[in-house]
Amino acid sequence: MRLGARTNLALLALLAGAFLTGWLAFAFATAPARWSLVVHALSGFAILALVPWKSIIARRGLGRPRSGRWVSALFGVLVLVSLLAGLLHSTGLLLWWGPITAMEVHVGAAIAAVPLAIWHVLRRPVRLRPTDLSRRTFLRGGAVLAGAAAAYAGSEVAVRAAGLVGGTRRFTGSYEVGSFQPDLLPATSWMFDAVPQIDTGEWTLHAGGRTWSYEELLAFDDRLTATLDCTGGFYSTQEWTGVRLSRLLDSGGSSIRVVSSTGYDRRFPASEADSLLLATQVGGRQLDPGHGYPVRLVAANRRGFWWVKWVNAIEVDDLPHWWQSPFPLQ
Ligand code: HEM
Ligand code: HEM
């Protein structure tokens, strides 16, 4: 039975690790994303390695007429769906289910599993005993991790040997879609934003203590080639045209808050004013509504949720740039 308890405790650590490193990877569009995803994939494969042991515990538990066992079963289904969708994404075997990406299913199932995981652990408590920290436990744990590392490395080699598209993904795990072909750029939003229909005859942008009309913004010709890397699992490199924020804002202040007409907002360090572009065009053409018409932010080296669409205000103030939820809540 102690083997069961140790398996459950190992699962707890691995689930928490996978969840945290998944979000950590989303926080970066630069090299740390890869390191985080290596730990992430290792945790995922280690959970898979424990499935034979956990199925013994689960089968026994499900056989008992105990309250809440179907909640545990649903929790199991969600974890398996998340694992399967993660593997389908990373191998490239199935990237889309209709309009939904495998990555969205992966993260969605993981988020849905969180309350059930908390319930499961609180209702089926496992106590750590001093003997659980024996040399033997560590050796077993090490063996599970080594097996997971071998399986992960093996899967990466197999994906390439079999010529699966998984071999082409970027260090963030994302797949290339329609670079330099704006027509093929997918339009997605973080969570709940619906595409607003904006009439530029009446629309204005508030920035730097004044209002700007759409025509005034079209007169700028700053260009930036930047990669939009969506947390839905794709990326696309495009040439964006518009105006650098440093031209619209007075210098000073600690951070810049970029606000959408939907209320969605993100805050950036004031020192980035020169590298952030407020785009009116992509690939030499006006943005379409799904991509942020009339203007959207282009934030190179940041994941897609930083690229605020339908911007209508840019404010500078003295709040620190990290004074915001690490991921948008709308
Ligand atoms: C991959 C994650 C996990 C899945 C899919 C899972 C699923 C299940 C299922 C289906 C059962 C049998 C039904 C029941 O007794 O409610 C069960 C039992 C149990 N689980 Fe989990 N579980 C997971 C992780 C954990 C964790 C992290 C802990 C605690 C740290 C834990 C502790 C237990 C305990 C103590 C039992 C009861 C065993 C018994 O008395 O027969 N489980 N689990
Ligand atoms: C229950 C929690 C989770 C588990 C067990 C899990 C497990 C996995 C597994 C097994 C893979 C495939 C790894 C590979 O073959 O390279 C994967 C990929 C991925 N997961 Fe998760 N994951 C979980 C939650 C999350 C969350 C919450 C996020 C983001 C917020 C996330 C982001 C990713 C990303 C970006 C990839 C793609 C990595 C790549 O293709 O290189 N995961 N995950």
Order of helices and strands: HHHHEEHHEEEHEEHEEEEEE
Task: List segments where confidence is low: pLDDT < 50 over at least 5 consecutive residues.
Answer: none
Work out the oligomeric state of the chains in this entry: single chain
Major sheet description: 6 strands, mixed
Going by helix content, strand content and strand pairing, the class is alpha+beta
CA radius of gyration is 23 Å
User: What fraction strand?
Assistant: 15-25%
Helix content: 40-55%
Strands, count: 13
Bound molecules: protoporphyrin IX containing FE
Number of helices: 8
What sort of overall outline do the alpha carbons produce when their principal axes are compared? elongated
Distance between the termini: 44 Å
Please tell me the overall pLDDT: 95
Describe this structure in words.
The structure is a single chain. The protein is of the alpha+beta class and 330 residues long. It contains eight helices and 13 strands. The strands form three sheets. Strands 3, 6, 7, 10, 11 and 12 form a six-stranded mixed beta sheet that branches. It has a five-stranded mixed beta sheet with strand order 5-4-13-8-9. Strands 1-2 form a two-stranded antiparallel sheet. The radius of gyration is 23 Å and the shape is elongated. One protoporphyrin IX containing FE binds at residues 15, 18-19, 22-23, 25-26, 37, 40-41, 44, 47, 79, 82-83, 86-87, 89-90, 106-107, 110, 113, 155, 169, 173.
